[in-house]
Write a structure and sequence with these properties.
Helix content of chain B: over 70%
Chains: A mainly alpha (467), B mainly alpha (165), C mainly alpha (492), D mainly alpha (629), E mainly alpha (109)
Oligomer: heteropentamer
Shape of chain B: globular
Shape of chain D: globular
Radius of gyration of chain B: 20 Å
Strand order of the largest sheet of chain D: 1-2
Order of helices and strands of chain B: HHHHHH
Largest sheet of chain B: none
Strand content of chain B: under 5%
Structural class of chain B: mainly alpha
Number of helices of chain B: 6
């Protein structure tokens, strides 16, 4: 609750900041300060269960250690993102304050999506996430790619909203308890009533759309590619993780009982996501676009959480969110500084900026899932969850084979950085752009990844912390 | 056949027909107008279902505000010509076929639903007073939160519309 | 007593790790070189110490809380087999460092740092007593090698190494699934937090039926087969050996391939006895075919490095086959042969490296008459090459003799077919010796110089090891006796 | 006594020390010192062997093996590093160290033109060879024997390829080693079989546990052992390496390829005589193979022009006789022939070496002739050697061969007649060799003629000693008929049971043989003298002679049947299976991923309409799956 | 009235909306089709609300009202979405002078 209120408030603060603050650099600090505040407030709630304001939410939002931990992860990652990329936000356009305001609103939506307890809140949360994102995507107004991405995102996003609503309508219609509360849906033991079944599929589709699962992923590469890189970093990580969190939350609470009845759908989607995501990423020349596909591929792994829906899956989801977000934010932070976004643009980075190269390597190794990185632990938890589930063993094998394919495109960057010489005379990166603070932050990010890889318990223990 | 059924059929035919016209009209302005017709007929359905509040809101918000906005944009862009290029034939066909099969699939599944009566011309669930009570008792939080939506829409409009310095 | 506060397996893992990380901080190329050599010698001393202070009853098993909620722990230990292979690892690195002491590597600190890290990973693999920990080290040993090969290798290093990496990575992920599956079937230890366990003892207690075992067997086996490598999973190997910097190739062929064999012995065999008994003929068939296949290719090979690579495939094939005979003789043979093969092939690589350094050529047909210019080198190589083809009184003979013996007992025809490779091994080895060292010198080999003192010393050390283990293999048998016995107990 | 026998390890240690010293110090040792070390080490071994012989002579039982340390001692397999010194061993010890010493001595002069370090290297190899040969005959179990067995193969390889600049020599060395390895595989398999069935490779344990073996086992094991023997002792089908092995220095041919190593096969079979006696099928095979080899090699020897090749084929042929003897069960006769053969064949080789030395390295007998005046010592000793091998009455060759023939006669008459034909051929090619080399006119170049000289003392003294031995060496087994006593077979009695000849017609047969031999030799003498003691000799042959001169084209046949197909398979594996097949498949996966990546990304057409269409299709599929499946 | 009739009508309108999205190239029209989809949902929700009003929610009408409140929220969101959406379309139009989605093909593969 604390996070929701504070993000909303801070969004408004930032909005007004846009009016009063003329200095371009100031909003960043304001935003960071706010986020620290939010992070602490959320930490307070997670630790002691104390809410700043006592609001009767009529049980429409539900907080527990699980989603508070997730919010903490999301806020932490966003904080890191702000710290790393604050200056890059300034470069997108003149409405710096507004961008931050929008991001705060997105965060508010993230919190709602993490804590929702009724379909209405889910819907609102998703929309509060989506609408600012449409705008952020198109914020580089004179860039045609940004325009195009925004329009594509918007059209398809609205389309998926329609599908989601249709699903909600059917769920409501089929629910003999006539309720939108996700824990208040009467399903029964046997085969689902057809209305619920149809509603479930619609919801599944719309959630798949949000987490860019194949075949509802088509917006992802184009939008991630077209959007200003900082915002790509933001939406491909925290927002996406929130989508997954909502996905799992919805399907666990609402349809967990009839899990076997829709598991096949998840299997199809997961398999397709793993395959298409990894395969398509292989051929990409632009690192940014490759990371877009990689986010699809990683989504394939995260879908295991929905596939298994057990304790390990939930732990894995938190871990995955953190691991994936950290690594992707890190790699995007470096990518933004690059002059050339193609893989060849990374040639010889290790020589010029060894530290950047090392951290980038850690990020990429984590994304590949090499042991002792957070990426491994998260993948490991997902695989455990899937194996524990016991069904569809082949899917697990497909997943690891795809993980092997993923090594191909992640390692291409490592190869470029370390084993290839820069082609042009000009440096691949502007040294002046790389401040000491930036480097320190990258090291911190990398260290977090390693720490989570060595000792994921520090994060996961919060899940069982009684609020 | 009761009068309700007849009204239902008339409204339904109207809605579907207008929707089809909206989709197929070559001139965007015509599309907008047809959509307004759809909205009106849906409002008619609301009335039939005794959802008075929604019937009014639908007219005001949708047919009124939103569609005017659409019309405005269409006019602004000077798109009121009949020569809007259509997609190539094959894509159109594919779209119709897949959309149609989706319809068939859903219909064939959903028509197995047990027949349940719907309360028409009666009941107080859709009355303004009733809804007001519910909205401001139970739904305060979402109501407040939806303000964020509007705020962001507002900022969005600013960010996007305002000229870069 | 050393080993009270920190045990030998821990020392063996942590020391190279810390030393490797420390290497990255050293500025001067020469000092990092010295440091690496120094560190590796210390590791060797630790390993030697482990022989005195640990035995099978007190195998220095230690276990720390780690991923408790996963039921995993930092459990390491040194049984006989572990001591043997950690010793191999420990002795290989100083040899490698000395042999390549004159090489100048760009960015030497990274090179030596990564080498030491890979040593730490290898040590971990050989010490791990926890499946998850084992998997960690299994991958960790790979990563430094990947960088070493891709950074300091030959022309086509990037593709070749990458193929190697993806191949092994895919294999190990399959194993990971298998590990998880077994883990799910371990009994829950209620007294300890109620989780499943990755501990090897708990893994061994798992009861699986035939079908489960079969699946798991292949999941594990593919991972190990790729690492060893066994026909038909071997194609990464010649490319990688050819492209990798020679010192890394030594690590790869000398120790890393042993990881596969070791893993079969440590995990595959005891975990899935039913499946092993069911599929042994296929595995042995593949191994034996691979032996002949690789030997025949080696005969037609004109590239020195590839020749050695194929010869290695043939030798590993025999070891793998012998493992699956599941007999005392065969397993003991494998144990000693793992050690011997590691020593011999490192010796071979040292010679090849020396040759290539001087001539810039690795084509057999372009060399010749080296014996005129470098008689000492020739003699030392001859000894190593002959050890490689298992001439009696060299170290490989005992192992091969025992492995063939067990294979014969398992199946006469497999043994006979595999025996053909003994002949073929002689053919390609002698071919190589003849074409490279004998005959007249040519333009390429005209300026070859004989080896210098340090190289002579290091090759002599190898030769001494060859003869000593060839003549007195019994200490090694005594070392691994208990490991073998307990392995065989799994098969009743 | 036992204490003395336990110290027999000194016998192989001497040459080993010699090897190590000369080998490591080869760059520093002056020639004479290297030679001294090498020769003295062998001589010391010889003295020790003589002492051992002296002790063993009085032992009547079969002495137990001496255990030094555990070589392999595991749960199922116990093999010690054991020596076993018995009568058989002591005979071989004497042959090896005795003849070995003479040849070492001879080599000091023969190899004197070598560079210093090569010279030392040569002697270190020779010493190493003696070491392994001693190990072979002293081994207390089959594994130790095998160590020596392979070790002598290695030394043979090293010494054949001693002049490593010459590629043909290297090929010969390699061929020798590989052919030997083929045999070794047989040996190994036999060992594995023994281990599998008896659980041991100990001579004593095997002999004691023979009851555990079925007839099939015994036959199989013995055949495999025999395969090993065909490799080492150059029998059909693995004999072709031996003639090529003449590429090595001549003393090497004398020592390794005539006197000692090639007889290892005989030693091994005699050592396993208990096993072989139980395998009549194997024995028959051995006899037939031995006979065939004897005949085949003899036919080939007739038209060889290389002095050493003739001797090499003669060796193969004589080895055939030895196997024939073993095959018919006359083990001690076989061993006896080993001994006499060691004398006269070493002599012949060394004498041939002397000839070659005199001829400045020329080996082609068509380019020789009339040498008897120039190098008389060599001539006389060579002549004695020829007489011995041809079986001139009461020379050592006569006695040992007669004994074999008699045994064969008792076993199978056909074999006997064929063996006699072989003996005649032996006489024929030896006399041909003699006449072409020493009689007629000189056919070489003027330079060579100018250069002709008798060899130094170090070479002639061994020749003389061996010549004496060749002539009188057989007397230890002179038949009763001629007033002798079979001391030799009596000596071997504890190891091998001598076949008792209670044949009443024995004396008659002996005389017939004696007379036949004299007549045959006379005929052959005159015939060959007429044809080969000539001034001009055409070295070209036509028709059937050409086939013989070309060794029945056996090498070419092996090349076509075995080598070429194997290489073709190798090429096929390398270029097709490996490249296109397996690696192609592996890379194919990579390519397939790449290709599908290129194709799949086309789905991402950039068109919103297409995206939505695909999404709708996806929705459709999911609905169908959920609602209707 | 039977709920089936409403379900059928809603699905029909929904599908027409989808088909419209599929076959049109004009971004505004596509957007309008999406609005049509939303409206079909609204209609369905209202119908379900009235269905439940007769059934489960007979005693406690606030349960049935939930759906109508939901419809209200949908309208709210739709309005916000329209403002943003049209802003994006206008922005696009300003740059490329077209609202034809077929020209949106700079981002592909």
């Amino acid at each position: 609750m604390n996070a929701i209120i504070l993000t909303a408030i801070w969004g408004v603060v930032m909005m007004f900041g846009g009016v009063f603050i003329k200095n371009k650099a100031t909003p960043k600090y304001l935003a960071i300060a706010g986020l620290v505040l939010i992070f602490l407030a959320n930490g307070l709630e997670l630790n002691t269960g104390r809410a700043l304001l006592n609001i009767d939410v009529k049980d429409m939002l539900h907080t527990n250690s699980f989603n508070l931990t997730f919010i903490a992860v999301a806020m932490g990652c966003t904080l890191l993102f702000f710290l790393l990329n604050g200056r890059d936000v300034e470069k997108v356009g003149s409405h710096v304050s507004e961008y931050f305001a929008l991001m705060f609103f997105v965060l508010c939506g993230v919190c709602i999506a993490a804590t929702f307890n009724t379909l209405l809140m889910l819907f609102l949360g998703i929309e509060i996430i989506s609408i600012p994102l449409y705008i952020l995507t198109g914020s580089d107004k004179r860039n045609l790619k940004s325009n195009e991405a925004a329009l594509k995102y918007f059209l398809m996003g609205a389309f998926s909203t329609g599908i989601m609503l249709m699903g909600i309508a059917f769920i409501y219609g089929g629910n003999e308890l006539a309720s939108f509360f996700i824990d208040n849906i009467k399903i029964g033991e046997g085969k689902m009533p057809v209305l619920l079944s149809v509603g479930l599929v619609f919801l599944l589709i719309s959630m798949s759309f949000k987490v860019s699962a194949v075949p509802f992923h088509f917006w992802t590469p184009d939008v991630y590619d077209g959007a200003p890189t900082v915002f790509t970093s933001f939406m491909s990580t925290i927002v996406k993780a929130a989508g997954f969190f909502a996905f799992v939350r919805l399907f666990e609470n609402a349809f967990g009982v009839v899990h076997p009845q829709w598991q096949t759908l998840i299997v199809i989607i997961t398999a397709a996501t793993l395959l298409i995501g990894n395969l398509t990423a292989v051929f990409q020349q632009s690192v940014k676009r490759m990371l877009a596909y990689s986010s699809i591929a990683q989504a394939g792994f995260m879908l295991f959480a929905v596939f298994a829906l057990n304790e390990k899956a939930k732990e894995g989801l938190i871990l995955y969110s953190a691991a994936y977000s950290l690594a992707t934010i890190g790699i995007f932070a470096i990518l933004i500084k690059m002059k050339d976004y193609t893989v060849d643009g990374f040639n010889g980075l290790a020589k010029q900026q060894p530290l950047l190269a090392i951290t980038a390597t850690i990020f990429l190794l984590s994304l590949t899932g090499i042991p002792l990185t957070a990426g491994f632990q998260s993948k490991f938890y997902m695989l455990m969850a899937a194996v524990q589930d016991g069904h569809q063993f082949w899917l697990v094998i497909l997943a690891v084979l795809c993980a092997a394919i993923s090594a191909y495109y992640y390692f291409r960057i490592i190869q470029a950085m370390y084993f290839k010489e820069a082609t042009a005379e000009a440096p691949v990166i502007d040294d002046a752009d790389i401040s000491k603070g930036f480097k320190i932050l990258l090291v911190i990010t990398a260290a977090l990844i390693i720490i989570l890889g060595v000792y994921p318990q520090i994060l996961l223990d919060w899940l069982y912390h009684s609020v | 056949m009761s009068i309700t059924t007849i009204v239902f059929i008339i409204l339904s035919v109207m809605a579907v027909g207008a929707a089809l016209m909206m989709v197929s009209a070559k001139n965007p302005v015509h599309s907008v107008l047809w959509l307004i017709v759809v909205f009106f007929s849906i409002s008619g359905h609301y009335v039939l279902l005794n959802a008075q509040f929604l019937a009014i809101v639908n007219i005001i918000v949708y047919a009124g505000a939103i569609m005017v906005l659409f019309l405005f944009v269409v006019m602004l862009m000077n798109l009121n010509v009949e020569s809007e290029p259509m997609k190539n034939y094959r894509l159109q066909l594919a779209g119709v076929i897949s959309g149609g099969s989706l319809l068939l699939v859903l219909l064939s599944a959903l028509m197995k639903v047990q027949s349940t009566p719907v309360q028409t011309n009666d009941g107080d669930v859709g009355l303004i007073k009733k809804l007001g009570m519910v909205l401001f008792n139970d739904y305060v939080v979402p109501f407040e939160l939806s303000s964020i939506l509007f705020l962001s829409a507002m900022i969005g409009a600013v960010v996007i519309a305002k000229k870069e310095k | 007593m050393l080993g009270t506060y920190i045990t030998f397996p821990e020392l063996l893992i942590w020391f190279p790790l810390v030393a490797g990380i420390f290497s990255f901080l050293i500025k001067k190329d020469d000092s990092v070189k010295t440091w690496a050599l120094f560190a590796s010698i210390i590791t060797l001393c630790i390993s030697l110490g482990s022989f005195f202070y640990t035995n099978d009853i007190n195998a220095s098993n230690v276990s720390y809380e780690w991923l408790t909620s996963l039921g995993s722990s930092f459990a390491v230990g040194l049984d006989g087999m572990g001591r043997l292979l950690t010793f191999l690892t420990a002795i290989a690195f100083p040899i490698i460092f000395v042999a390549t002491y004159n090489n100048k590597y760009k960015n030497a600190k990274a090179f030596y740092g990564l080498m030491l890290l890979s040593q730490a990973g290898l040590m971990g693999v050989f010490c791990a007593m926890d499946a998850l920990l084992f998997y960690f080290f299994w991958e960790l040993a790979l990563i430094p090698v990947y960088f070493l090969c891709s950074r300091w290798g030959g022309e086509k290093r990037i593709q070749a190494t990458f193929k190697f990496f993806v191949y092994t990575f895919a294999g190990s992920l399959l194993m990971l699934i298998g590990i998880i599956y077994v883990y799910q079937h371990t009994s829950v230890r209620i007294e300890e937090s109620g989780f499943h366990s990755f501990r090897i003892s708990d893994f061994l207690a798992v009861q699986l039926n035939m079908q489960q075992q079969s699946w798991l067997f292949w999941l594990f086996f593919v991972a190990f087969a790729i690492k060893m490598p066994i026909f038909p999973f071997h194609t990464w190997q010649p490319d990688t050996y050819e492209q990798a910097p020679t010192s890394t190739t030594m690590v790869l062929s000398g120790i890393m391939v042993k990881m596969g064999l070791f893993a079969v012995l440590r995990w595959l065999l005891p975990l899935f006895p039913l499946a092993v008994a069911r599929w042994d003929n296929i595995v042995i068939g593949l191994s034996v075919f691979g032996m002949i296949y690789a030997s025949l290719i080696a005969i037609k090979q004109d590239n020195l490095k590839r020749l050695v690579a194929y010869s290695s495939i043939a030798h590993i094939g025999l070891m793998c086959a012998a493992i699956f005979t599941r007999s005392d003789t065969g397993l003991q043979g494998v144990m000693i042969q793992m050690f011997s093969h590691g020593i011999n092939i490192i010796g071979l690589w040292i010679v090849i490296e020396l040759l290539e350094k001087q001539t810039g050529v690795r084509k057999i047909s372009e060399l010749g008459g080296v014996a005129h210019k470098a008689p000492a080198l020739t003699i030392l190589l001859l000894v190593i090459a002959l050890a490689n083809i298992a001439l009696p009184l060299t170290n490989a003979f005992v192992g091969e003799f025992m492995m063939f013996s067990s294979l014969f007992k398992y199946n006469v025809w497999f043994a006979t077919a595999a025996g053909v490779s003994i002949i073929l091994a002689a053919v390609y080895t002698l071919n190589m010796v003849q074409k490279v060292f004998y005959g007249n010198t040519n333009a390429v080999t005209e300026n070859v110089k004989d080896i210098n003192l340090s190289q002579t010393v290091i090759l002599s050390v190898i030769v001494v090891i060859i003869f000593v283990t060839g003549l007195f293999p019994q200490p090694i048998f005594d070392l691994t006796k208990d490991t073998v016995t307990s392995l065989l107990l799994r098969f009743g | 006594m036992s204490n003395v026998l336990e110290s027999v390890w000194v016998i192989p240690i001497f040459p080993l020390v010699g090897f190590i010293v000369t080998g490591l110090m080869r760059n520093y040792l002056p020639k004479h010192l290297a030679a001294f070390i090498a020769c003295s080490s062998i001589f010391l071994s010889f003295l020790a062997s003589a002492y051992v012989f002296y002790i063993v002579k009085d032992v009547t039982s079969n002495p137990a093996a001496i255990h030094y340390f555990d070589f392999i001692n595991t749960g199922a397999l116990h093999i010690g590093f054991d020596f076993k010194i018995d009568h058989l061993t002591s005979v071989f010890l004497l042959i090896i160290t005795g003849v070995g010493f003479l040849i070492h001595l001879y080599s000091t002069a023969y190899m004197s033109e070598e560079q210093e370090n090569d010279y030392a290297k040569y002697f270190s190899y020779l010493n190493l060879f003696v070491f392994f040969m001693l190990l072979l005959v002293m081994g207390g179990n089959y594994l130790i024997m095998f160590i020596g067995w392979e070790g002598v193969g290695l030394c043979s390889y090293l010494l054949i390829g001693y002049w490593f600049t010459n590629n043909n020599y290297n090929n010969a060395a390699k061929k020798a080693f590989i052919m030997n390895r083929i045999g070794d595989l047989g040996f190994l398999l036999a060992l594995f079989w023994l281990i599998a069935k008896v659980g041991s490779v100990d001579f004593a344990t095997v002999n004691a546990g023979i009851a555990k073996l079925s007839t099939f086992d015994v036959t199989g094991i013995t055949i495999l052992f025999f395969v090993g023997a065909t490799g080492k002792s150059a029998q059909i089908p693995l004999y072709t390496w031996l003639p090529d092995a003449m590429a090595g220095p001549t003393p090497v041919s004398a020592l390794i390829h005539a006197a000692t190593m090639v007889t290892a096969g005989i030693y091994m079979i005699v050592r396993s005589n208990v096993l072989f006696s139980l395998a009549p099928i194997t024995m028959e095979i051995i006899a037939v193979i031995g006979l065939l080899t004897a005949l085949l090699a003899a036919t080939i020897a007739i038209y060889q022009n290389d002095i050493k090749k003739v001797l090499a084929y003669s060796t193969v042929s004589q080895l055939g006789y030895m196997f024939l003897a073993l095959g018919v069960g006359a083990f001690s006769s076989g061993v006896f022939h080993v001994m006499t053969h060691a004398f006269f064949k070493a002599l012949l080789f060394l004498a041939a070496g002397s000839v070659i030395h005199a001829m400045s390295g020329e080996q082609d007998i068509t380019k020789m002739g009339g040498l008897r005046k120039k190098i008389p010592v060599t001539y006389i000793t060579f002549l004695l050697g020829v007489l011995a091998i041809a079986g001139f009455p009461f020379t050592s060759g006569f006695i040992s061969k007669d004994e074999i023939l008699l045994n064969v006669y008792n076993h199978n008459k056909l074999y006997f007649y064929l063996a006699v034909i072989g003996a005649v051929m032996t006489a024929f090619y030896m006399f041909r060799l003699l006449f072409l080399t020493f009689f007629g006119g000189f056919r070489g170049t003027h330079e060579q003629e100018h250069h002709l000289h008798e060899s130094p003392k170090a070479m002639t003294i061994p020749l003389i000693i061996l010549a004496v031995l060749s002539v009188i060496g057989g007397l230890v087994q002179l038949p009763h008929v001629f007033g002798g006593h079979p001391y030799f077979s009596e000596f071997l009695n504890p190891v091998v049971k001598t076949v008792e000849h209670t044949d009443p017609k024995l004396a008659m047969k002996e005389y017939v043989l004696l007379i036949g031999t004299i007549i045959g030799l006379a005929v052959v003498y005159f015939f060959t003298k007429k044809n080969y003691a000539v001034n001009k000799y055409e070295g070209e042959y036509h028709g059937f002679k050409k086939v013989l001169a070309n060794k029945w084209y056996v090498d070419e046949m092996y090349d076509a049947i075995v080598v070429k197909p194997l290489l073709a398979v190798g090429t096929f594996f390398k270029n097709v299976v490996e490249k296109s097949g397996i690696d192609g498949f592996v890379n194919g996966i990579g390519k397939a991923v790449n290709y599908s990546s290129r194709q799949v990304r086309l789905l991402q057409s950039g068109q919103v309409g297409a995206y939505v269409l695909l999404m709708v299709i996806g929705i459709l599929i999911l609905f169908i799956v959920q609602l209707f499946l | 009235m039977d709920i089936k009739a409403y379900i059928g009508l809603s699905i029909l309108l929904f599908s027409i909306g989808i088909i419209g999205v599929l076959i049109r190239r004009n971004a505004i029209i596509i957007f309008m089709c999406i609005e049509l989809m939303l409206n079909s949902v609204n209609l369905l929700l209202v119908a379900f609300s009235k269905m439940h009003a007769l059934g489960i929610a007979h005693g406690s009408p606030s349960l049935a009202s939930d759906a109508q409140v939901f419809v209200f929220f949908i309208m709210v969101v739709a309005a916000a979405e329209v403002s943003v959406g049209l802003a994006i379309i206008v922005m696009m139009y300003r740059n490329v002078h077209s609202v034809d989605i077929n020209f949106l093909n700079r981002l592909k593969n």
